[in-house]
Design brief:
With about 775 residues, the chain is α+β, with helices and mostly antiparallel strands. It has 28 helices and 21 strands. The strands form six sheets. Strands 11-10-12-16-18-20-17 form a seven-stranded mixed β-sheet, with helices on both faces. Strands 5-4-7-8 form a four-stranded antiparallel β-sheet, with no helix packed on it. Strands 1-3-6 form a three-stranded antiparallel β-sheet, with no helix packed on it. A hairpin with a 2-residue loop joins strand 4 and strand 5. Helix 8 packs antiparallel against helix 9. The longest helix is centred in the N-terminal third of the chain and has 43 residues. The radius of gyration is 35 Å and the shape is globular. The N and C termini lie far apart (about 85 Å). The N terminus is likely disordered.
Length: about 775
């Protein structure tokens, strides 16, 4: 500008045209730069304002509006990193739109490649997406950028835990403790040790937590929870009591100790603690639900139904019930609130069945899961008693004890139920019930053959037991304990009159009459060893649904029980085959790897009892097994879960336990595949008598396929090798379990020292049908 002024002062001549042009350009340059800077500042301030508005809206839980503000900030200033980070967080945590969140985090890293938080943010997203390798890599980059940031190590450690990379996880937990040797750091490692079943190391770290913070309640709470989960209830109560002494007046501590007392069967002490927690509660609705929902159980178990109803009404307050809107326990509370006072037992039963069906997919915390499920079973047993269904009540009570043996009220109920049944039987004047199973109108998959021979398959039932069954006056020689019977007949052409007579142990008689038309085209079952074609009819009502529970144990808590290498690997490979080759959808497959006895029994009972006539269940077990003779000389078979203690049979899973778990199932077919030492011992409680007939898909079955008889099975099992191989190589659309077994039976005999077994499970509803694998 000074140069222009100098030129004008020194010259009286007109400014040349070119000079004027340059003069204007210079003026524009001089004034445009400040104007541009001002506009940029204004734009940046507007973007910052939109970002701050988005944060405020996010705090108010107005997530869509917050996203709009963050988007506005990005449009105003595309290179501004904060709104990408904020919007990505909302997409990830609240909207659950992981693809949009990932796009924002990718842009954040592009704009701030040297900031560790950019990578740790994306790592958390990858963790939620179960992309554990990507998450670990991002945490590694965050650590490279900020090596002394301790939380990156613990976050990466937890990713390694999920990816089953234990050594890497432990190294990170150790690094975290080295950087920050606090109570929290030791607690995180203790939880890791507990997860991998290193209980002594876990307890050592819990003790370290107490040593570091002896005057706060949380270390005692953590160790008390550890004892609680290990069912060491006396030690758990002591720790919670110490926590209360250090920091009295905490409602959560009273609720926690109340849970322990409930689990231990000390219902009076539990009620007292829950009442105290309600009195000292600060007023948060979620805490109120925890108290109201918890106290109902011990009140019901001690017969204090009116008090339980009052708390159930409080739990259904609109501000409280929203915390369990997707929790099946709400059905349990609703039964206590409405159905029990009005004696609407059928309605109660329907609600409890609904709770049972929803329980498998619920997000209830694993620590209290079995106790809440036990509540549902116990109340269902009570309702069944009120309906006079004593046999069913007994079975449900027994299932409850399988999950949680420490239930004095259930033991008392079973004892009283036994007395009730004795009284009922003494006055029994009712005739038995006769159910005709085959022949009947066929549905679904069919086993079709032509001939004139047939078999009458039926079931006779009575509370006093069945003394005899006759078909056309001829006594049936074998009646199963659950009343299933088979009688062979030769049909004559035309109409054949059939009469079934059943007599119970009190002398009451029932007669069922029907006719069967004998023709060359009558669907009957041919000889056992002759091949039968499995076909799908042209029209079916519903496609069958296939479920699987895959149980595998590599790691055992008891050092006296040797760990295994292959069960989880085998189960994982079988899972892949079932989902990719056969009609087992992911949402219907439950995996129980290295789980406790209680967790396994709960899953078996819940799954099997929630199924209907269109469902089919495959149960697979791989792990240690054993067998022992009882005092009568009978052989009992056992599966050994990860929580087992060597030589303590009550910590094992017996064949009788499996039978009780399956007894209430309405599933069309149940197939148990057991790959364990002495798994053939399970057939000692099974019927190996073949009923001599291949039946339609619609005829229920309960079968077991065992890797061996009464001999040990190696960790590297030939049975599972051929099972996976033949399932994979199968080219048939429909493959029966029997045909699958036959396809590798001789191969195992020729290539191992084991003798596989295939038989019907006795007394749990097998009617001679076949589980059928259907290829996709």
């Amino acid at each position: 500008m000074k140069a222009v002024n100098s030129y004008l002062l020194k010259s009286n001549q007109p400014i040349p045209n070119n000079t004027m042009k340059y003069f204007i350009i210079i003026l524009l340059i001089c004034f445009a730069s400040p104007l541009a800077t001002f506009a940029q500042v204004a734009q940046s301030e507007a973007a910052k304002s939109a970002q701050e508005k988005g944060v405020a809206l996010q705090k108010q839980k107005k997530y869509d509006e917050a996203i709009a503000s963050y988007t506005e900030a990005i449009m105003l200033e595309p290179s501004y990193p904060d709104p990408y980070r904020s919007r990505g967080f909302v997409y990830y945590l609240y909207i659950k739109d992981y693809s949009k969140a990932l796009a924002d985090y990718n842009m954040l890293i592009k704009l701030t490649p040297n900031q560790s938080y950019s990578y740790s943010d994306r790592a958390r997203l990858y963790n939620a997406m179960e992309r554990y390798t990507d998450a670990a890599n991002d945490y590694t980059e965050a650590i490279r950028l900020k090596p002394d940031h301790d939380t990156h190590y613990v976050d990466r450690a937890e990713v390694y835990v999920k990816a089953n990379q234990r050594d890497l996880a432990l190294a990170d937990f150790n690094k975290y403790i080295a950087l920050e040797p606090t109570e929290y750091a030791y607690w995180k490692r203790a939880v890791f040790y507990e997860k991998i079943k290193e209980n002594e190391l876990a307890l050592k770290d819990f003790n370290k937590c107490i040593a570091l913070e002896p005057k706060t309640s949380s270390p005692y709470y953590f160790r008390g929870q550890f004892y609680y989960k290990k069912q060491q209830y006396d030690l758990a109560v002591k720790d919670f009591s110490k926590a209360m002494a250090v920091e009295p007046g905490k409602a959560a501590l009273y609720r926690g100790r109340g849970d322990i007392y409930t689990a231990a069967g000390n219902y009076a002490a539990a009620i007292a603690d829950y009442e105290t927690s309600i009195q000292v509660d600060t007023g948060r609705f979620v805490a109120k639900y925890a108290a109201y929902g918890s106290i109902i159980s011990p009140l019901v178990r001690t017969g204090k139904f009116e008090e339980a109803r009052k708390y159930a009404e409080l739990a259904f307050d609109p501000n409280v019930i929203r915390y369990i809107e997707n929790n099946p326990i709400k059905h349990f509370i609703d039964v206590v609130r409405i159905d029990l006072p009005s004696k609407q037992y059928l309605s109660a039963l329907a609600k409890l069945d609904l709770a049972n069906s929803e329980f498998g997919s619920s997000k209830i915390d694993e620590d209290i899961r079995k106790f809440r499920y036990s509540d549902i079973l116990v109340l269902k047993g009570y309702v069944l008693e009120k309906l006079g269904r004593y046999a069913q009540a007994k079975e449900v009570y027994e299932q409850g004890l399988l999950i949680n043996p420490t239930q004095p009220d259930v033991k008392d109920a079973l004892a009283k139920l036994k007395e009730t049944v004795i009284t009922v039987l003494a006055n029994d004047i009712l005739s038995p019930e006769i159910q005709l199973i085959s022949p009947q109108a066929s549905r679904g998959l069919q086993v079709v053959a032509i001939g004139t021979n047939t078999e009458i398959i039926g079931k006779a039932s009575d509370s006093s037991g069945i003394a005899s069954v006759k078909v056309n006056g001829v006594p049936v020689t074998k009646i199963e304990d659950d009343g299933v019977f088979v009688s062979a007949l030769v049909l004559k052409p035309g109409s054949n009159a059939i009469e079934i007579t059943a007599t119970d142990n009190k002398g009451n008689v029932a007669i069922k009459k029907f006719t069967v038309t004998g023709t060359a085209a009558t669907p009957v079952v041919i000889a056992q060893k002759k091949e039968v074609e499995v076909i799908m009819p042209v029209v079916t009502e519903k496609q069958p649904v296939f479920h699987a529970i895959l149980i595998a144990t590599n790691d055992y808590e008891d050092p006296a029980i040797q760990d295994l290498q292959n069960p989880v690997k085998d189960a994982t490979e079988l899972e892949a085959i079932l989902q990719t080759t056969y009609t087992f959808e992911k949402e219907h497959v439950t995996t129980l790897y290295n789980k406790s006895r209680d967790e396994i029994m709960q899953a078996l009972i819940q799954k099997s009892s929630s199924m209907g006539a269109n469902d089919n269940l495959l149960i697979f077990y791989a792990g240690h097994g054993t067998a022992e003779k009882d005092k009568f000389g009978d052989v009992d078979g056992y599966w050994i879960p990860s929580s087992a203690k060597k030589g303590v049979n009550s910590t094992y899973i017996s064949s009788e336990d499996i039978n009780k778990a399956l007894k209430r199932s309405e599933a069309r077919h149940v197939l148990v595949i057991a790959d364990a030492c002495f798994s053939g011992a399970f057939t000692r409680s099974l019927s190996d008598a073949n009923i001599g007939i291949q039946k339609q898909y619609n005829v229920p079955s309960r079968k077991i396929m065992a890797s061996g008889n009464m001999e040990p099975v190696p960790d590297n099992s030939k049975f599972i090798f051929y099972l996976k191989k033949n399932l994979t190589a199968n080219t048939e659309r429909y493959l029966t379990a029997k045909k699958l077994f036959d396809s590798f039976y001789e191969a195992i005999l020729n290539n191992s020292d084991t003798s596989p077994q295939f038989a019907a499970i006795r007394n749990v509803g097998d009617e001679g049908g076949q589980f059928v694998f259907i290829k996709k």
